[in-house]
Amino acid sequence: MKIALIQASTQIARNHLLFEETKRATEHLGAEVFNFGVVENEENFSYIQISLCVGLLLNSGAIDYVVTGCSSGNGMAIAANALPNVICGYLPTPSDAFLFGRINQGNCASLSLGLNFGWGGEINLRFTLEKLFEAPMNTGYPVESAERKKRDAARFKAIKKLAQTDMLSVLTGLEEELVSPIFRKRELIDFILENATNSELTAFLRAKIK
Q: N or C: which end of the chain has fewer CB within 10 A?
């Protein structure tokens, strides 16, 4: 399992903590965790731009799961869910994370990295990530409703696929000013080009970084 970590520029100070806690929470899965920032001395990226990075990582096939966040976590979740093939949970508490990890068959978690992140905030973050990645995932919950929950998750994915366009159409339909900073985030783009399974998307990216 390959997990990417990437958060909005407003929460640069939380990047290292989020990276370390994600590694800790997924160690039992044998997961590889890749940190794509945002860190100091980078361009500033809004949560909208980072959500596009999330979409690129998942739609390219280079990554299986993304852990992200912004000041509240809510804006990032909404923006990420607007993108094709991204199912993002807004997870302010461990119980939210546990239910999302069991029921919704998601591939992205958005965390609150500013709002209510006071004394003991790192403890809530740790427990939230632990409950999200607690094995086994995607089993349905509660047990007596598990099969129905799994059917509903599959139906939601089908609706999302019918209701949304593809990632390439998203990137080409947006103004250059919004998307061009993403193509300059070379660590992320190079990783996608080396690990992606979506040849159409990688061809587009190669053309953009020439």
A: C
